[in-house]
Amino acid sequence: MKNITLIALLVFSFFTSCKEEKKQVETEESKVILEISDTLKWSERMALSEIKRFPDPTLLDFRDKPKWSYTNGLVLQAMSRVYEQTNNQKLYDYIYDYTNRMINEDGAIETYKLSNYNLDMIKSGDAVYYVYNKTEEPRFKNAMDTLHKQLEGMPTTSEGGYWHKKVYPNQMWLDGVYMAEPFHAKYTKSFMEGEDAQKTYDKIVLQFDLIEKHNRDPETGLYYHGWDESKEQKWADQKTGLSQHFWSRGMGWYGMALVDVLDYLPENHPGRARIIKYLNQYAEAIVNYQDESGAWYQVLNLPQRDGNYLEATGTSMFTYTLAKGVNKGYLPETFLDHAKKGFQGILNEFITVEENGVVNLNKCCGVAGLGGNPYRDGSFEYYIGEIIRSNDPKGTGPFIMAALELDK
Asked: pTM for the complete prediction?
């Protein structure tokens, strides 16, 4: 009889425990749902939605295993700005979790290989910089030193322009300027001085000067995605070395680089005025191609061509660039109207909200590049043919930052 009673108690205890555990899970779930309420600003709603989608920050960008990648740095940098406004601890914990797990005690970066000389690998340095300034853990400084060392050793064109990657020789892409230069400028401002700092600032500005020299089309003011100094690539024009089209996100990367590098470039550096001039020319060009909806097309200057579509990542980047440019005093106030129109276009064209409050950014170009294997030829058909998906971090990060600049 005692055994039967004991068994009954154990069974009762088991089911009670299960109910309690389920209740606890539901409570946590409800807590997350409550946090993504429509009373929050879009910036915080999207940041929390990203955490909901990717509870593990090392798996951002739909990964199945951790990887050091630029997309993590992009989203985490955006989240850090939301955290500074909201003090939502969930955001800081998420940022720290990535850097904590990807950087070893000695500062070695998991899955990263310096000898690849890949500019994309620099971007997550922004998240490391942020966490280091909060914690002052030496390993984070060591990791940033490694990224700086990569930039110091990057292979370059004959004029000193960084190759996009070692495996893409002689090529400068718009993407690479954003991946590397804002981080390098903040690293220089914080950890370098004297002649070494001056030389590094000069090298940073040079990257923008060369993009302006080679990638900008004087007729439209738009920028070609890539330039091959050797003119050996099949995607490169045999006379100019340029790729064929004006890709929305490629130009978006460059615009964000312009406004972000100015946060750290010294006021008295002679290149500062040039970059502000570049930004104004850039802004004047992109607003000429803004659709009535407020959004921008995947291939910027061919809105009527079959297959072209309004695209979320480039639109978010342009909106952020224009809004920040005005807020910082680099651009005339008139561009704020275009930024506001862009943000409303994002809400109308791309944003959906699930019943649990999770915010989705739809119609994102998943990936685009030049060359490689399989070979990407930079044709119109290539750009419109790449995968279109929802919640690509190359869109959600800039969306968060655009929302912050517009206080939305």
From this structure: 0.91
